[in-house]
Amino acid sequence: MAKPSFDEIFMNLALELAERSHCVKAHVGAVLAKDTRIISIGYNGPPSGTHNCDQEWPIEGCARDSKGSCSLALHAEENAILYAVKNGAGLLGATLYTTLSPCLPCARLIYSAGIIKVFYKYSYASYKGLSSDEGVDFLNKFGVEAVQFAGN
User: Any transmembrane segments, and where (predicted)?
Assistant: First the structure.
C-alpha cells in the first residue's frame, strides 16, 4: 500500500479544516507547514471572540463590505498566518496548503510573511467569477511558487 505524500496529507487536512468554517458563503481551510511539520492551521471565519456567522446570521451571513465580501471574516490564510505569528512561529521558507487560491490581499500577506510555496485546490477566480487569479499571478510574479494541487 502506497503511503500518502506530505503534500496530500496537508491538503487533505486543509479540506477537513474547511468544514470547521462558520462562514455561510464559503468554507476554506489552510495549513502552514515546513520540513514535513505543521506550523499552523486556519479556516475562514470571524475573529475569535466575535460572532459566528452561521449562528448569528444563518440565512444571509454577515454584512457585506463595499466589494461584496464578508465584513467580519478573516480568510483561512490570514488566520493561519496570524496564529503562527502570535505564537512566535517562523514562516520563512514555509509552504501554504489552501483549499481556495489566495485573493490578492492574502497573496501580499503570504509574500510578506516569507512563505515560498502555495498549493491550492480550487480557483478563487472561478469561485468569484473573475477573469484571473490575481493572487496567484502576484505570487508567481514575485517568486512565490503558487500552483494548483494535482493530487487526489
Answer: none
